[in-house]
């Protein structure tokens, strides 16, 4: 369910990027119409900011619990794999560990896609036809470009932003813990 909420925001960010890049197509060509069209796109952007904020508020503690549990599962399973004495144990532990890693990867991949789409909004505005617009529209676009520099992020509690590096950090921490146990 939460992946659907994240994908919804990612899709809206992609559509918003297209609208920012081709905003003059959504108007009848008059400067007032272009300005109001841009204003509506900015309102959509503000609505998306609020939506991502609500999703983050609703899911950040879930993501913290998920992070702790999955980190524990990866660590314990990796420890069991290294201590396994027969093939039967390996046949059980390796698929379990891989399934946990895949679950974590899927979650973090979708959250990272939202981050990437939101960081791309400024470039999409820049690729648009902003240089042929009135000074009022150009100034508004500059303000919007400065506002879209802050990407959409989801966090783990109040501790860290979720990105692909988090999976690598989680795996490194599990490996370090296992090595520490072996000493």
Automatic annotation (TrEMBL):
Parts of the chain that traverse the membrane: 90-111
Full protein name: Odorant receptor
Keywords assigned: Cell membrane, Membrane, Olfaction, Receptor, Sensory transduction, Transducer, Transmembrane, Transmembrane helix
Molecular-function GO terms, alphabetical: odorant binding; olfactory receptor activity
InterPro entries, sorted: 7tm6_olfct_rcpt
GO cellular component: plasma membrane
Pfam families in the record: 7tm_6
Membrane topology classification: Multi-pass membrane protein
Cell location: Cell membrane
Coiled-coil region list: none
Example GO biological process: signal transduction
Biological source species: Phaedon cochleariae (Mustard beetle)
């Amino acid at each position: 369910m939460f992946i659907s909420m994240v994908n919804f925001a990612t899709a809206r960010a992609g559509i918003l990027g297209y609208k920012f890049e081709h905003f003059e197509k959504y108007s009848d060509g008059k400067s007032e119409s272009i300005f109001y069209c841009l204003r509506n796109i900015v309102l959509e952007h503000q609505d998306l900011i609020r939506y991502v904020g609500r999703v983050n508020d609703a899911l950040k503690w879930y993501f913290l619990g998920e992070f702790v549990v999955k980190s524990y599962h990866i660590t314990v399973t990796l420890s069991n794999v290294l201590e396994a004495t027969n093939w039967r144990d390996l046949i059980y532990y390796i698929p379990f560990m891989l399934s946990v890693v895949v679950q974590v990867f899927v979650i973090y991949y979708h959250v990272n896609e939202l981050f990437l789409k939101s960081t791309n909004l400024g470039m999409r505005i820049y690729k648009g036809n902003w240089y042929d617009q009135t000074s009022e529209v150009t100034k508004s676009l500059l303000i919007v470009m400065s506002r879209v520099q802050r990407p959409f992020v989801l966090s783990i509690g109040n501790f860290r932003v979720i990105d692909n590096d988090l999976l690598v950090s989680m795996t490194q921490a599990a490996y370090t813990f296992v090595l520490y146990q072996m000493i």
